[in-house]
Design brief:
- This protein is mainly α and 91 residues long.
- It has one domain.
- 42% of the residues lie in helices and 0% in strands.
- It contains four helices and no strands.
């Protein structure tokens, strides 16, 4: 499988699934090797197969976000999903 390195000028939404997987794996690997204070276990197996029974990421996020107070949601711009690159990268 050939993947393209992540270019900071690209939106994450434009990545193919293979590019996104490679980007996440590389980010985790760099975090494990460069940040000794990380919460990541240094024995993470980045080559393990996809677990079809794992809880989907969006469900985990939804559970975490369910407890956020209304004041936090009020601070999120209405166009945040459409303008995510602008808000994240100030572009």
């Amino acid at each position: 499988m050939t993947t393209t390195p992540f270019n900071l000028d690209r939106s994450v939404a434009s990545l193919t699934m293979a590019e996104l997987v490679a980007f996440i794996q590389e980010t985790i690997a760099q975090t494990i090797h460069t940040d000794s204070s990380t919460l990541m276990n240094s024995k993470v197996d980045l080559s393990s197969p996809f677990d079809q029974f794992a809880q989907p990421f969006w469900e985990i996020v939804a559970e975490e976000m369910a407890d956020l107070p209304d004041e936090v949601w009020a601070d999120i711009p209405e166009d945040a999903s459409e303008q995510v690159d602008r808000y994240l990268y100030h572009s």
